[in-house]
Structure formats: structure tokens, C-alpha cells
Amino acid sequence: MKSVLLAALLFLSVNAFANGQSDDDLVKEAVADTSGKMKDPKAREALINHDAGAKRANEGVVNVVGTKGADELYGISAEIIPLLFKEGQTPEEAMAMLKKAQGNPAEFLKSLPPDVQKKIRDLAGKTGGGGSTAIKP
């Protein structure tokens, strides 16, 4: 669970914002861009190869869920990101929510829609606790 949040935070932090748009438009665009990159293995790989922070975060993700589980984890993260950015919510407020969620992942899990909760539980069940027992290639 914590890995989902960390991955989401990482990919949000590495997105560049365009100039000349309202803050709300920038947030919507960044959320859509981030979600798209998380779902697209090629776009994600390009980002990981280009950014040392993204590479470290991805290594952590793979350590927790294995390489096969990484795509699933990033897909779940892509679903969570828009939930963090409700209409009019600032990036700072979303980051504060992530920080709070990292401190109490179980409570954050309860706040997610039931289908997302199920996906997280299913992935956690497949990993057997992560690390060396994670689903591997």
C-alpha cells in the first residue's frame, strides 16, 4: 500500500507544468499526464531512464511487488491520482493527503472506492508480503 502512494508521489513530482494556463487546468493536465505515464510501460520506462529519482522509486516498487506486479501497481496508482485531486484541490493539498496516507495507510485504504481497495488487496495477496516472495518474472 505504501508503495502505491510513494509511486504516485514520485510521478506527480517529476511532471513539468506548462505555462499560460490556469492552476486548475495545469493540475488537470498534470494528473492526466501522470496517470497516462503510469499506465504506459514505455512512457514509464522513458521517465525512469531519464530521472534518477524515478529510477530509485521504481526499484523500490519492483522490490515490493516484483516486475510483473509493477505494471499492476502502477495501474492502481493511476486510478488513485485523480482521487487525490478533487475539483479545486491544490497540489499542496494532494501532497498533504499523501503524507497523511503514508502515516496511516489502512485508513487511507478505507477512503478509496471499493474496486480500488479490492485491487490493492488482490495485489498484496499475490506478492506474499513483497520482497523476495513477490511475484517475479
Explain what the structure shows.
The protein is mostly helical and 137 residues long. Helices cover 77% and strands 0% of the residues. It is built from 7 helices and no strands. The longest helix has 33 residues, at 52-84. It is globular, with a radius of gyration of 15 Å. Residues 8-22 and 130-137 have low confidence and may be disordered.
Secondary-structure map:
Layout: H1 2-13, H2 23-39, H3 41-50, H4 52-84, H5 91-103, H6 105-111, H7 114-127
Helix pairs in contact: 1-4, 1-5, 2-3, 2-4, 3-4, 4-7, 5-6
SS elements, strand count = 0
Rough outline: globular
Helicity, as a percent range: over 70%
Helix-strand topology string:
HHHHHHH
Radius of gyration in whole Å, from Cα? 15 Å
Mean pLDDT: 75
Q: DSSP strand (E) fraction?
A: under 5%
The number of helices is: 7
Largest sheet: none
- N-to-C CA distance: 21 Å
Q: Unreliable stretches, pLDDT < 50, 5 or more residues?
A: 8-22, 130-137
Structural class: mainly alpha
Keywords:
77% helix; mainly alpha; disordered C terminus; globular; single chain; 137 residues
Structure at a glance:
This protein has 137 residues and is mostly helical. It is 77% helix and 0% strand. It has 7 helices and no strands.
